[in-house]
């Protein structure tokens, strides 16, 4: 049979009543220590909630595991438990949105910005043998992953602010890289001997017009 756990307020009222009645119990000191630990736990939770960025799931899990040893009905526990239970479902749905059917990438790899954009000139057969290069892993023929984020997560996974900053910087670098890549492709229009990274064929104004017509159809 499930036995309801006492609330923090219940314990505080009990200790207050014992002090007012001048009753000494051996368990009072332990209860007071437990109350202080619960208040410290609540402060940690409030700090996480008031942060500029959402806390990591691992931070919620650590708080939840710590609170389980208190055996106290702390108010934030329900929210934390609900968040932990919903996380796997959210991750699965998100991966379905971002991941291609034949992709073997992890979720972090899927959303990690690239430090360079590799031309799509590698066939699937060659791609398997050239998955790893001297500069880093080629991500499905579309650039080299920026491993800075993974290093930061491994070093200090409980600091969302640092991770966000690094991710933002990596994203801006990726945008600059794509803009430069696009600019170089635009210049190829004036060179009939140039090839584009996608089709590997010389630029042809007539063919370009035909392709635009097909796209419109």
Mind explaining what this structure looks like?
The chain is mainly alpha-helical and 217 residues long. The chain folds into 2 domains: 1-98, no CATH class; 99-217, no CATH class. It has 9 helices and 2 strands. A two-stranded antiparallel ribbon has the order 1-2.
What's the number of helices?
A: 9
Beta strands, count = 2
Query: What is the radius of gyration?
Result: 28 Å
Oligomerization status of the protein chains: single chain
Mean pLDDT value? 77
How would you sum up the global shape? Answer: elongated
Query: Please, how many domains?
Result: 2
The percent of residues in helical segments reads 55-70%
- Topology as a string of helices (H) and strands (E): HHHHHEHEHHH
Q: Structural class, please?
A: mainly alpha
- Biggest sheet features: 2 strands, antiparallel
Order of neighbouring strands in the sheet with most strands:
1-2
Low-confidence stretches: 120-141, 212-217
Strand content range: under 5%
- N- and C-termini, Cα separation: 68 Å
List the helices and strands and how they pair.
Layout: H1 8-20, H2 28-49, H3 57-68, H4 77-98, H5 107-111, E1 114-116, H6 124-129, E2 144-145, H7 148-155, H8 160-187, H9 205-216
Helix pairs in contact: 1-2, 3-4, 7-8
Summarize this structure briefly:
With 217 residues, the chain is mainly alpha-helical. Helices cover 59% and strands 2% of the residues.
